[in-house]
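Notes from the pairing session

We agreed to fold both candidates in a single pass and log them together. This is the raw record for the first candidate, unedited. Please don't reformat it; downstream parsing expects exactly this layout.

Candidate A
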Amino acid sequence: MDLQYLFELFLGGLVRGSIYALIALGYTMVYGIIELINFAHGEIYMIGAFTALIMTSVLTMMGLNQLAVIVLASVAAVVYACAYGFTVEKLAYKPLRNAPRLSALISAIGMSLFLQNYVLLAQTSDFLPFPSLIPDFHFWEPYAHVLSSQELMILITTAVVMVFLTFLIKFTKIGKAMRATAQDKIMAALVGIDVNRVISFTFVVGSATAAIGGILIASHIGQINFYIGFLAGIKAFVAAVLGGIGSIPGAVLGGLVLGMAESFFTGFLLSDYEDIFAFLILVFILIFRPAGILGRAETQKV
């Protein structure tokens, strides 16, 4: 067996899994706080990518240099995606905070479909070319044939975001408020925590990670359309469940495991069925380990 081929599959799975992990972080944060699967999260990822494309075109026409274009387009995409995440939470989820979970789930699916069709009408159904925002790093040229600069940036970004979110939740005041809200919203409110503010903040942070993932993967692949968020969102949800939804390291681990599994599956078996393979993994994990790899089974009070 060709070791170089195995190594290429490993790196491909690592990069793919890192993208799933960036999106899965938003899923797992929202679920950890309010136990809601935000199925509109994939569309926030897509909107972040479209915003970066539009801003890149505008800033390039203004004659700005490449570094300024990258920074400003990325900041604009993250801010715009955060605004959408904040608005979605206020319009679609906050009014149903005390409603049955099925109502919130239906609202999440409806918001996902709404955002898809909104972007379809505002843009186009065709695939649009996306410029390469990440330049080739000179220090990385000897290794570029193994792992490109864009792929390296994806791996570094995923690691930095995971460390940042872990630090945010464990060692900051807002992080402590998030943990308290996740444990008991009523008691958190009684001790002075603004629960609504904490939940909104969680949606904003999750939307930021999705936007970052959208920019990186669109730059890597080189094209986008209005539908890219749906499949990426579903696979990120699988990654979050696989790693243990509600756990930040679990979301990253789940994304990496899913990416690796898909890479080796398509490399040795059938490349046409990689999407089906992701759902097969979800079925098996729900049957044999419903809490996920790093998740802990919860006892229900009766």
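Candidate B (folded immediately after A)
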Amino acid sequence: MEQQNSDLRKDPYIALRFPEFRSFLVMRFFLTIGYQIQGVILGWYVYSLTKDPLSLGLIGLAEAVPAIGIALYGGYIADKSNKKTLLNKVVGLILLSSTVMFVVTLPNVTLSLSQSLLITIIYCMIFVNGIARGFYAPTAFSMMAMIIPREHYPNSSTWNSSAWQTASIAGPALGGLLYGFSGIHQTFIVVLICITISFVGTFFLKSRPSTFVKTGSMLKSVSEGLKFVFKTKMLVGALSLDLFSVFFGGAVALIPVIATEILHVGATEFGIMRAMPAAGAVITMLLMTRFSPMGKPWRNLLFAVTGFGISIICYGLSRNFYLTLFFLFLEGAFDSVSVIIRSTILQLLTPDDMRGRVSAVNSMFIGSSNEIGQFESGLTAKLMRTVPAVVFGGCMTLVVSGVTWFKTKKLIPLTLEDIQKS
């Protein structure tokens, strides 16, 4: 029996052998690919209207503010609600906001709106998406933990992240190509099809009633999630490291500016550039199903963040399109290692009845740091110009990695088994 269990743990496809997990991946894949296409075309479209890099940063801010503001409440609701029902509502809200953006970008509607009103509506719908994200992240995190047995969390985290990254490859590439050949409103039709498939997919998941036991007020319940994270040294260390590295390393948001003003390429090349970080990530993640980074996770996490920072600096200094693609590929490869390690640690150390609230804290640290990092990149690009802003972000990422290494030396030699026993 022990030999059989050992073989199962070594099986790189073990998580995929659970039918409901496959359904979950399909739901997440189509939501992500639609979301990624939408993000790419909105960034290009808004920048083409404004010619202002700060407008790209404001896209990130419009999504991050509600996502951060509602995250803890979203985690509380995720813990006490039926997971399937909540996913239905959240994906439905995203579908509604995308439908509104599709309508306002139709040629006849666009002509009847002023530029400022059009951009305001887009920002408002991005704000709605941020609200939805505040509920989606903890709900999906809790749902996945209920689908897969605990001993297979590392494998399921790898496949879950791989599905996300695969969609992140296809999304930017499709978004750039479709936008370049057919325009924004036709591309939005593809977005709506993808999100509709995801919405229908939520109905194929099993109902997941809450295991939450209320022990006090909502405020007390929310504070329990915060206290758990901040008293668990490895959790707060991993979240803080990723928060600041992504905050200063959000240079991917400036790809529209790099593409048009530095490399002088069009929408198709822009789509390829947006796809390269995800291409590096998914290839690395597929390798990690065979070669796990969890031998000494904290050491490997610090190595990955350092490589991430170096690749950003090189990307900012590059003047060659193909060299830029290579550095974007490396950026995604290093980032994927960080994602796998952090998500596995989070799954292993979080009690079942607190998954929503802990995931909400994670969303505040990590999920929204991408959008805040996007705003930081847009603001610094406006103040410092594009290339200095990218190089500054990469240098600050290296500083964050160095400080974290110095502060957490005791965690560096720990193995995955040591973490599970702690």
